[in-house]
Design brief:
The chain has about 425 residues and is of the alpha/beta class. The protein has 2 domains: about 1-150 and about 310-429, FAD/NAD(P)-binding domain, CATH 3.50.50; about 160-305, Elongation Factor Tu (Ef-tu), domain 3 (Beta Barrel), CATH 2.40.30. It contains 12 helices and 18 strands. A 6-stranded mixed β-sheet has the order 6-2-1-7-18-17, with helices on one face. It has a 6-stranded antiparallel β-sheet with strand order 10-11-13-14-9-15. Helix 1 packs parallel to helix 10 (about 340-355) and helix 2 (about 60-70) runs parallel beside helix 10.
């Protein structure tokens, strides 16, 4: 019996892989007895701040390629995502509640997995820790005692509004550059409307942060008000960019995109609008967008502490602790950033522990794969280690002579998938 601490995406992936390979595991999570500030669903594998698992383009996007690598290794989250997906253009988006329910059901169907509701305060001698960016106080202290401290950054989530409260007469349906099936609802703004909105956003009152949460904001999850403070046009060249969109044949000055949060389309999330504004301020400021003038908020945006290890100091590329080769870590705690990346690390941790239990050395995927590149990134020496998403920059070099970006990415993807098939044969052998 091995212990898996944490029932998020990473812990669920690890538990399922081990169970399907004959290993009995105890999956421990605080829910439903206790929830973190970001969680509300009693099921495992909860998506807390977006229903999007990003691009599904295998040959043109690094995260799309990572998802295909995971599918080929039997990922439970990728299977559940396919079963619960909702339209989102070229992205893989899911009905969040259905997604968590599907994964939970599949886990509970496995007789090899036992379930325990408790808050762990000590690291297991053998198993996987996948407690995520909101690791609770007791276990956080155990990490500090064992590894000499952890780093913090902030993560912010976007508001969600009810569909019936949106003024659809002030919107138009279109995916950027026509890619997709009309999955985004666009809220156009004139120059005057956009300027007033940005000024209100910058001047709005932000929620207070606890003393222990004060630290550096991670660039990849920057609150929209922080981005707006960098310059009046910052959002218009980023989250609110109008390029690739046309409202009646004319490109708007700025556009906020809304995306369905569930299959029924009763809720919409404000794309890229992660925020730490006080709730009343969120309603006041976002209601300045014409389509959201009378919007009703099903969930306001929140900002919370994210914890991750100084992984290059304490972890190997196989995700095991340098101080204990039978203790593995997975998820955002390791310094990978994003839902898919977290799930991927859980899948790898399960594979590595399974091999270790069978008296075999773990095998790290090749550096030509996204799985392997992320594994090596978190273990590589770094003076200023920061969380990392899937991207082409971390892949082992190749095809530098190919000038066409699309062709180069296609070649990188083909090379990666061939390497994953070899890796799959290796671990099974």
């Amino acid at each position: 019996m091995v212990k898996i601490v944490g029932g998020g995406l990473a812990g669920s992936e690890a538990a399922y892989f081990l169970a399907t390979h004959g290993v009995c595991a105890e999956l421990t999570d605080m829910k439903p007895a206790r929830f973190t500030a970001a969680h509300s669903n009693a099921d495992y594998c909860e998506l807390v701040c977006s229903n999007s698992l990003k691009s599904d383009d295998v040959y043109g996007n690094a995260c799309g390629l990572l998802k295909e690598e995971m599918r080929r290794l039997g990922s439970i989250t990728m299977a559940a995502a396919e079963a619960t997906r909702v339209p989102a253009g070229g992205a893989l988006a899911v009905d969040r509640a259905a997604f968590a329910t599907t994964v939970t059901r599949k886990l509970r169907e496995r007789g090899e997995i036992s379930f325990r509701c408790a808050e762990e305060t000590e690291l297991p001698a053998r198993g996987i820790v996948a407690t995520g960016p909101l690791t609770s106080g007791g276990l956080y202290q155990a990490l500090e005692r064992t590894f000499g401290g952890a780093l913090c950054f902030y993560d912010a989530s976007a508001p969600i509004v009810s569909a019936e409260s949106i003024d659809f007469s002030r919107t138009f349906v279109q995916d950027r550059y026509g890619r997709g099936t009309g999955d985004y609802l666009n809220c156009p703004m004139t120059k005057e409307e956009y300027t007033a909105f940005v000024r209100a956003l910058v001047g709005a009152e932000r929620a207070d942060l606890h003393a222990f949460e004060k630290g550096e904001i991670f660039e990849g999850c920057m609150p929209v008000e922080v981005m707006a403070a960098r310059g009046e046009d910052t959002l218009r060249f980023g989250t609110f960019k109008p390029v690739g969109l046309s409202d009646g044949g004319k490109r708007p000055y700025a556009v906020l995109q809304l995306r369905k949060e569930n299959a029924a389309g009763t809720s919409y999330g404000l794309v890229g609008c992660q925020t730490n504004l006080k709730f009343g301020e969120q309603k006041r400021v976002f209601s300045m967008i014409p389509a959201l003038k009378n919007a009703e908020y099903e969930r306001y945006g929140v900002m919370h502490r994210n914890t991750f290890l100084r992984s290059p100091r304490v972890l190997r590329a196989d995700l095991s602790a340098k101080s204990n080769p039978e203790l593995f870590f997975a998820g955002q705690l390791t310094g990978v950033e994003g839902y898919v990346e977290s799930a991927a690390s859980g899948l790898l941790a399960g594979i590595h522990l399974w091999r270790r239990l069978n008296g075999k050395e773990p095998i790290v995927p090749p550096a030509t794969t996204v799985l392997g590149a992320l594994s090596r990134y978190i273990a590589a020496e770094s003076e200023d280690f920061q969380p990392m998403n899937a991207n082409y920059g971390i892949l082992e070099g190749g095809f530098e002579g190919v000038r066409d970006k699309k062709e180069r990415r296609r070649l990188l993807a083909e090379r990666s998938l061939e390497a994953i098939e070899r890796f799959k044969a290796q671990i099974n052998g």
